Known about the structure:
The chain is mainly α. The protein contains nine helices and no strands.
Amino acid sequence: MSDSMGFVRLFENGDFxxxxxxxxxxxxxxxxxxxxxxxxxxxxxxSENFFELDEWEINKLAFAVAVKSVVKGxxxxxxxxxxxMSAKIYRGSKxxxxxxxxxxxLNYTLAYTLGRQKRKELEPVAEVLSKxxxxxxxxxxxxxxxxxxxxxxxxxxxxxxx
Length: 162
């Protein structure tokens, strides 16, 4: 696939497997592809309306974030730390526990981790969560956790670093 618009078509059609195969090929300008996906999909605007999005739009948001994260060099271990925190919150929310303190902790842990990184690898994830977490109600946490699981899965599909 020679042009980034072909990637946009694959993205819009939800053909993430074909996207991943093409994305990993030598000679692909991943930076350009990432910018095209962000321009076409506008994850910033989507994250502002996160709780109004349907499951497919949240899935596409996770894929767009994963593309940008791979380009920035995010490692699997960096995103998995955030996913592990999320899993704890998710389990607590399923048990009807008050997880608001854990949500705040996730928010400042993201900020701290992002501040420590030179290349801001976690920035695409943090940009979405910084808009979502302050408006989050405990009972809505499943959507956030599903989003993070999808980011990790797509990060792996796209050839993200271990």
